[in-house]
Design a protein that fits this description.
The chain is built from four helices and five strands. The protein has a single domain, classed as Beta Polymerase, domain 2 (2-Layer Sandwich). Helices cover about 40% and strands about 25% of the residues. It has a five-stranded mixed sheet. With about 110 residues, it is an alpha+beta fold. The protein is globular, with a radius of gyration of 13 Å.
Length: about 110
């Protein structure tokens, strides 16, 4: 299911012109998710549209999102699909928080 879900999410984001789509495998780094998808939207309207499309498409495939946060402001929207978290961010917010660096750091022995 996870590979199918990831393929669906990345396809939707790509179709809707999401920028810099990145999938991070976090299953060995946390207990609450297996993957994080991070994507940039060009404006608050674009961010909201991307998040809404991911939510609607997942619902159509039978997976109701556990939660959606941040739709009011549209700077950073989190769509919780259980094992997959989708972060849709404006570029300035993405640059500030740098989630890719945070979750891509390998644990030191």
């Amino acid at each position: 299911m996870t590979k199918t879900l990831l393929a669906m999410v990345t396809e939707v984001l790509d179709d809707k012109k999401g920028q810099q789509i990145e999938v991070i495998d976090v299953h060995n780094k946390c207990s609450f998710a297996d993957h994080m998808v991070i994507v940039s939207g060009s404006s608050s309207r674009h961010v909201k549209s991307l998040a809404n499309e991911v939510s609607m498409t997942s619902k159509k495939s039978g997976l109701i999102p556990l939660g959606i946060e941040g739709m009011d402001a549209g700077e950073w929207v989190l769509v919780d699909l259980g094992d997959t978290l989708v972060h849709v961010m404006q570029p300035k917010i993405r640059d500030f928080y740098q989630l890719e660096k945070l979750w891509s750091v390998e644990a030191e022995a």
